[in-house]
Structure formats: structure tokens, C-alpha cells
Design a protein that fits this description.
Strand content: 35-45%
Helix content: 10-25%
Radius of gyration: 17 Å
Largest sheet: 12 strands, mixed
CATH superfamily: Lipoprotein localisation LolA/LolB/LppX
Shape: globular
CATH topology: outer membrane lipoprotein receptor (LolB), chain A
Number of helices: 4
Oligomer: single chain
Order of helices and strands: HEEEEEEHEEEHHEEE
Strand order of the largest sheet: 7-8-9-10-11-1-2-3-4-5-6-12
Distance between the termini: 28 Å
Length: 220
């Protein structure tokens, strides 16, 4: 459960962002029965964020309340989840998983330019498993955007806690995590400050809303 929470924080891996920003990440899993190699797009506009992991589903999040809206494109359907219910579910998962054991990250002295970003490497372990963090100081707006999303994840995002708690300098351009399912590498491909259309954060007119399943924290 702890590793699942860690992976959710990474691939799904908050000061307010004034300008619109789009972050494209690549997530690659090596090992296990099935490898993974996919791109994820995160778009942030004011207090709204949209996350596209695949062409079939988009998730829109209110960064102030935590309310979530899922769009199922093949079915032309939409489903809302209140932030309170999501937080209750996260708390239950965290209670079952327990607190992750995280070592204080240390700078390795290695540097690398990754997709145009000058990065410094830090290493730590989470529950005994090695984690490598390549951080850059060249993307302050992207750092703010991911902080906003990570803040909604609370304690289910141990990597953000590591960065914030230890005041590590920069934005994670690449993270490499050893897991029971193989090595998972998340790399920022591009960061774009271009304006994002408001229509990206609303339900399309031809979509129908569907009822959300019962969750802790949801009113009957």
C-alpha cells in the first residue's frame, strides 16, 4: 500500500500560479509483467488544473477546494467527486499504509542537463527503496504548479514531503524509484507558459453527468 501511494503521487506525480502553465511528463516503468511508457499532461490555469494521462480520461481539479471532475471521453460522460470525500479516502489509505520511512535526502554531487533543465541529483530511500531526485532551479512556475497539486495529496505524496520538509532547492525534472514492480522513471519533457482556454476546465455541452460511487465523506 505504501508503494502504491508513492506511485500515485508520482504519476498523478501548492503559492499560487499567476500565469497559465502546461507540463508534459513521461512515465516509464521497467520490469514487471507489463512495461509502461506514457506521457501525462498537466495544465494549470489560476485555481484549476487538468490532468490527461491518456486520451480516454481527463481529470479537472479545483486547487482551492480539492473538488474533482472526471471526463470519460469515449462515453461522453462526467463524474464529480467532492474534495472532502477525496480527503477522507486519502486518510483511510494513509491509515492502512502507515507512515513511510524516509531517509534524509543527500546531494550526490552529480549534475546533468535534462531536456534543457540544469539539474542536481539527490538520493534518499522510502521504505528502504532507493529514490533519485534530479532537481532544477530553472522552472519556478512549474514548481509552484506541482506544489499546488501535491498539497491536495497530503501525506499520500511522500516525495513532495521530502522536498518541502528538507527545503531541497528546485523542481523535480526526473524522479527514479525502485519498486516491487520495477524501476519507475518520471521525466519532465516540456514546460510551456502559453495561455490555456477556459473551455478545458468545464464539462463539454454534449457530455452527461453520471452519479459517483459511494465514498467516505460523501453525503447520502
Amino acid at each position: 500500500m505504501k508503494i502504491l501511494a508513492l506511485l500515485t503521487a508520482i504519476i498523478l506525480p501548492v503559492s499560487l500560479v499567476q500565469a497559465d502553465i502546461t507540463i508534459v511528463q513521461n512515465v516509464k516503468q521497467e520490469g514487471g509483467q507489463k512495461g509502461v511508457d506514457m506521457n501525462m499532461t498537466i495544465e494549470v490555469k489560476g485555481q484549476k488544473a487538468r490532468i490527461d494521462v491518456n486520451p480516454e480520461i481527463s481529470t479537472i481539479v479545483d486547487l482551492a477546494s480539492g473538488d474533482s471532475l472526471s471526463l470519460f471521453h469515449t462515453r461522453k460522460a462526467a463524474m464529480r467527486l467532492p474534495g472532502a470525500a477525496i480527503k477522507a479516502m486519502q486518510a483511510k489509505v494513509q491509515e492502512q499504509a502507515g507512515e513511510p520511512k524516509v531517509e534524509t535526502p543527500k546531494a550526490t554531487g552529480r549534475t546533468e542537463t535534462i531536456n534543457g533543465f540544469a539539474c542536481e541529483e539527490y538520493e534518499t530511500t522510502v521504505d528502504g527503496r532507493k529514490v533519485q531526485l534530479w532537481l532544477t532551479k530553472d522552472a519556478p512556475d512549474a514548481q509552484k504548479a506541482l506544489r499546488q497539486l501535491s498539497a491536495l495529496s497530503g501525506k499520500t505524496d511522500p516525495l513532495n514531503s521530502v522536498i518541502e520538509k528538507n527545503q531541497l532547492p528546485g523542481f523535480p525534472v526526473r524522479t527514479i524509484v525502485d519498486t516491487p514492480m520495477g524501476k519507475v522513471t518520471t521525466t519532465v519533457v516540456t514546460v510551456s507558459p502559453n495561455e490555456i482556454a477556459e473551455s478545458k476546465f468545464v464539462i463539454p455541452s454534449d457530455y452527461k453527468e453520471m452519479q459517483a460511487p459511494a465514498m467516505p465523506g460523501m453525503s447520502k
